[in-house]
Structures are given as C-alpha cells and as structure tokens.
Amino acid sequence: MKRFGLVLIVAMLSVAGLFGLSLHLAPAAVVADIAGASLPDEKAPANKVSLSTQFGGAMYDVAEQGSYVYAGVGPRLVVIDTSQPENPTQVGRSEVLPGVVSRVVLDKDQAFVGAGGGGLHVFDISEVQQPLLVGSYDTGGFVSDIAIAGALAYVANSPVWDGTTWTGSSLQVLDIGNPASPALLASYDTAGWEMGVAESGDTAYVADGDGGVRVLDVSDPATPQEVGHYMTAGPAMDVVVVDDTLYVADYMQGLLVLDVTDREAPTEMGVLKTAGHARRVVLQDNIAYVSGDEAGVSVVDVSQAAAPVLIEQITPAGDIRAVAVAEEQIYLADRKNGLRIWQNTQEGAPVQVGYFDTLGHVDGIAVLKEKAGDVLAVVAAGDNLRTMRIPKKGDPEIVARYETEGKVEDVAVDKTHEPKKGKVYIVAVAEAPQWLGDSWSQTGLRMYEVDDEQHLQEISYLPLPGETHKLDIEKETVYVAAGSGGLRMIDLSDPLAPQETGYFVSGDAVLDVAAGKQDCVYVSTGDKVIDLCVGEPEPAEPLPQGRILPTPNPSVRQAEIKGLKPLTRKRIDMYGLVFSDDVLHYADMPLEDPLLWGNRSQVNRLRELDAAKTDKKDAGELFDTSGQVQGMTMLANDLYIADGDGGIVLLMRGGK
Question: Which residues neighbour 177 within 8 Å (Cβ) at sequence distance 6 or greater?
C-alpha cells in the first residue's frame, strides 16, 4: 500500500474516535444472536424503480468562461449566468453523471468533467443552455484533476475502495483527438496518490499526495518517465506551473513555491502557511488564490516568489473546495452551500455580491404533505435547514433557508399532531456538535412548528448525550440514533417539552434508526441492522463502579429489549433506513475519506428487505445513486432520498 494510503486510514480511525464511533465488536450476547442471519450480495430486485428527479448537491469545482460559470453541482455539470453577479441564474445543466462532479476544466467549446469515481466525461458547451455529452472514459479510479494539452488529457486518477483494497491510482494520459472516444495512451503509477496535475511542454508535474511532487518526462506521451521529485512537508494536493516556477498546494504547510528550472532537482523558493488546509491553487497576475476548506481562501501576492505575502483572507461560512477568477470576480465552490461570488473593491478588500444555493451535502429529508400535486418537504442540507417544494417532474424550489446553531444531521416529521390553526406539522431536527470558534455546540434534538407557508419556528430543544446522527418518529416517540450514546427514546406528546423516556446502549455506535411496528425499531450499528422491540425501562439499580450513566436525566433507564435479530453485511455500513409495509429499505454506505473528498467506494447500492420473512435473505438491489445515501423517506411508493453530495433523488415505482 502506498504511504498516503496508510496516512489516510490512520486519519479515518482518528476521525471515528473523535466523534465516538465505536469500532468494537458487539457484546457476546448479541454476537450469539447474529449467527446465520446474513444479507447476500446477489442482485434480486423485488420492485423496479426509476429516477424521477435529481436536484442539487455538493459543489467541488468551478470554472469560468466569459459571463458564464461552469460548476459541478452534485452529479451534474451546471451552467450559471453571472452577468448580474448579485443575481446568478442557472441557464443549463447536463444529464445525471455516474458520480459527483470532482473537476471541471474548460477548453474552448469543450468541458472536461471528472465525475469522481464515475470517470472522465467530455461535453460540447457551444450551446450553454444544453451541455451535450459527446464522450466518456472509465478511468477505473477517482478523477481528482485534469490537464489539457492539445489532443492530450492528463488525468490525476487517485484510488477508490473496491471493498478489499485501494485501486485505480495512476496518472493517465488520454488521446482526446476524437472527443467521442477518448483512448488510453499510458498509465503511470507514482509513489503516492495522484491528486493534481499540471503540464508544460514535455513535462508533467504531479501533486502526489504523501508522495510529494513528482516530475515526469512526457516527451513521448505513451511512455511517461519520472525524472525528478520533491518531498513536501504534507500531502501535495494541487499544482500550477508558470514558466519555470511551480506553485503547490501543500495540505498541511500551505502555499509552496518551487524552482523547476532543473526539473530533475526542484528547489524551494518560498513558502507561506495559509489558513486551513491548502487544497487547490489558481494563479492570476502574480496573485495566488489558495482554497482552505472551512478557512476560506487565502489571497497571496507571489510577485516575489521567494517571499509570498498574504494580501487578504476571504472567509465565508462554508467549505471552500475550489476557486476561479475572472477580472474583478472571484468564484468560490462551496461544498456545503453552492456558488459564492465575491468581487474586488477599490479599497482592495473583496466582498460577497452574489450566491447560488445548490443545497450542498444533503443529510436528511422529511416529507410534510402533498399540495396541488407537489410535495412539501424539510431538508437537512449544508449543515442547515431548507423548506422545499418538490414536484414529481421538474426542479424543486427552495422556499426558505434556516441557519442552526449545530450541524443538522437529520429531520423527521411527527404526523400524529393534526394540523390546527394554520400549523402544519411538528418537525424534529437532530443536531450534531459544530465548532463555534471557541467551543463545540451542544448535541441534541430541536423541535420546530411549520406553517402553511413552510416557515419554521423553533419551539423547544432537548440536549442529548453522544453524537446525534439520524432519527425517526412513530406514535409520538422520537427515536434518535446517538452514536456512542446509543438509541435514545423521546416522548413527544408535548412538543413544547420533549422528555427522554428510555435508551438502549450496546458495544457499537448507533448510526441510524427506522421505526417499525408495535414498538419495534430497526437500528444500524455499522455493518449490522438489529430489530429491537422496546419494552418498559428496567427498574433502577446501582450503577457498576466507574460507569457513567449516558443520559442527562438519572431517572431515565435502559429499556428492556424484547428481540435481537441482527442482519449483517461485511465491510459496508448500512445507512438511510426507512420502514414501510413490512419492507425495510436501506443503503450500503460508501466509504468517504475525511482528508480528501467524496465517495471513494465502488459500492453504493439502495436495497430493500422483506422484514416479514424470517430468513432475511431476499435483499433486492434497487438503484445505485451518484452520491452517498444519508437518509430516506417514503410517500406512497415513492422514495425521497437525501443522497449526500449527490443532492436530492426521487425514485418512483414502476420503472423500466
């Protein structure tokens, strides 16, 4: 395994530990009940579905051409007119691609689009209203970067997880002379993970993750050869070359400037520690713009390469993954929110002048009701809340956006409270901790009322232990998957004063929950789904020495569990649980990596299980989404899916 891969796995384990995600086996009593209850991998679709609507999603890259911005929005290439920067409008978009867009590179009337693990796609953009897909190529990995040089495309292809190992890592050289049929000329596996690439003449420079910067001779594109390298302090994420100067986004160190006059022995000229984690760098007129995720964008004067100077720090609230610059406009790709447009002023300090909401990463969706053929919904997206109107055909409309103190992980609707006096439903919101600059926000359950105009009003809040992930509501009981805090049960008979009535804690973190029938719920603890039938809380008893009761209310007791019927799958977490008419829908949760970005698993399948059958062996594969299924809700036979970076997906029964 490459050295960067080892660092990534350690980072993932560290993140799991930070948020209390249990990596331990279940207690012996539970393990004994698991024997023989497995879900097979074979495909056996029980009911066909078809894609009706896909909308929004995370934005990882942006490119500009004239007054148009070409951005990745979830699994689509979207064209945005910015001639009026204070009011950007969508004028065109592509079809749904097999992965979330990771890279957009323009070359005259063509757009070369990386769809993450879904390969390279070539679009004709001569008609901005309708980007036309003309060709594609499956790179076998994750398209992290693209450099175009005439009839050649250099693709930085970082690895994906195939369920057993990392695969697909290479720098690929493609012949794009016929854009309808890109052809592989060469594939060169560098020492690290290929994250970025820049080309100059007969030389390709590769930002090689933990392998630093690799210099390749591509005078013969069919046989690239490494001729030099430079070990960076942290993972090298992106490179830009101008003449004999190379600008490197070093994830840990910031902006690094290298002299590559002697390409066999690059030497450091200057370095500047930028805010956050340096991920991407673009250059315009001796000014470098370095994106730093939640730290925003560092604007750096590099006219003196040996002494780069920070001019300005652009700090919008969000997660800035890429930058494009055109004259006075600065376009920011905000993963959590969408396109942000900033503009330089005469005073020199840029200001935000426009914003195009794409929802960002969608974590949860709750349907309120149908109205005039449309569905009214509340969506957890970009760490906040949106109320939306979703037609079965056509694009959804964002009605309103609400900022929350914590990170919104999920939403659910209590439909036992009948609409009264203009109020519609009670909405429960699960909030995870969020860093506020000097402390973490509280974890808990926040309650809202929703009126006929889909406006939210907060009515109560209940702090909870653990890390809230997902929730579901049945018969005035809110079931909260609280990570290391287990399953929490909240009485919602009085929404103004929700009360915790019981909990269930095992050796594993509880990641998701779906309410079933007769006080039974399905709980996901990673690679297991456990059918829990919850009885009355057990009598109070002395706590074992050294044990801390995982609840803010000492009167709340561990609930009696009447049934344990675990369903298991190997290696893949199960997420997005929803139960309806004896059918449990769930998704194989693909692997995301916290250091890099996106879905890096080749497995991301929506499945269903007939829970009424005792053998539990009729799991049918329904659909592969482009993102990462985070949550689902049902209305009649339609599935409304919160698809993570893939936005909102509506699936309808009776597909072809």
Answer: 151
